[in-house]
Design a protein that fits this description.
This protein is an alpha/beta fold. The chain has ten helices and 13 strands. Strand 12 and strand 13 (about 255-260) form a beta hairpin.
Length: about 325
């Protein structure tokens, strides 16, 4: 039987570097009492505004909430939103020496307008160009400096310009040669970049597109997982299946299916960030791949019960484990 309490207690020994696209999530909360006379659209009367960490910043926040020591590398603009994102990271005690301020692009900002617990609209402000040679060299050098001080690297790819093939060709072999875990939350167009990582955590659609297999039943799921293992030469593929839970694939092993644990789904935004943060932290703490997958599945179920981009604590996971009696 897994000693979950002992495993969770070791989370605060983990040292994790998160590399990827930093996003600032802005929430404008209000209520709708009328329809606009200008067009058949609701008029939202604003009550308050909040900000939260998104993308790779949310992965870092999740890992930090679990007790890990966290470093982060990514880009922000030389603007007020970039400064706010940095301040929020530092408030969470996430180290930001790997963050580069790029005056040529805006900080990625996702603005969600929410009324009566429902999203009315989302507005994105972003520049998804890849890093130029100068930025790439600077980012690579900062990662090299930090790599010797961590146990694992999480690559969080939202397709906003940070995760490039040249960068991962430097990070993945160097980290794996040093005995460090490398986990990837992928973007569907970049699967060729991730070869050699320890583990990758695609959702169903990403797994279908990367493998070329439409997942419609258990047989096609197994085929997709096997193809991804072969293509990427990694130690594990963890496919997230939404309300069906997850399925873990390892070379030479039977697939490990895990049922979903969410009681009620309020908001799935950021759930993948929680999954990879828990999965990676658990591996560093000494869990095997199946234990790490099971714990990340449980955490994913907890976070979708919350509204907005959220995190999960060890106390919440302990309570749910006790309820499930596992």
């Amino acid at each position: 039987m897994v000693e979950w309490e002992s495993l969770l207690a070791r989370f605060d020994r983990a040292r994790i570097l998160v590399v990827g696209d930093l996003i600032l999530d802005q929430y404008i909360w209000g209520e709708v009492n009328r329809i606009s006379p200008e067009a058949p659209i609701p008029v939202v009367e604003v009550l308050r505004e909040t900000f939260s960490l998104g993308g790779a910043a949310n992965v870092a926040h999740n890992a930090r909430t679990l007790g890990a020591c966290v470093e982060i590398c990514g880009l922000v603009g030389a603007d007020a939103y970039g400064l706010k994102l940095l301040e929020m990271l530092e408030e969470k005690k996430i180290r930001t020496r790997g963050v580069i301020r790029d005056p040529s692009r805006p900080t990625t900002l996702k603005t969600r307008i929410v009324a009566h617990r429902q999203q009315v609209v989302r507005v994105d402000r972003e520049d998804t160009r890849g890093m130029n040679a100068s930025l790439l060299a600077m980012m690579t050098e900062r990662i090299r400096e930090i790599l010797s001080e961590v146990d694992a690297v999480v690559v969080e790819d939202y397709g906003k310009g940070v995760v490039q093939e040249a960068l991962l060709r430097e990070i993945i072999p160097r980290a794996r040669h040093s005995g460090k875990f490398v986990t990837v939350d992928p973007k569907k167009d970049h699967f060729d970049f991730y070869r050699g990582a320890t583990a990758i955590t695609p959702n169903r659609l990403e797994a279908e597109l990367a493998s070329g297999v439409r997942i419609s039943d258990s047989q096609s799921l197994v085929e997709a997982g096997a193809r991804l293992l072969d293509q990427l030469q990694c130690s594990a593929v963890l496919i997230k299946l939404g309300e069906r839970g997850m399925c873990l694939f390892e070379p030479g092993q039977q697939p490990f299916e895990i049922a979903a644990h969410a009681r009620e789904v309020y908001d799935v935004s950021g759930a993948g960030d929680t999954v990879i943060a828990v999965f990676t932290t658990a591996l560093v703490a000494g869990a095997n791949l199946r234990e790490a997958a099971a714990l990340s599945n449980l955490a994913g179920g907890l976070v979708v019960e919350k509204l907005g981009t959220a995190t999960v604590t060890r106390e919440e996971m302990r309570a749910r484990l006790q309820e499930l009696r596992v």
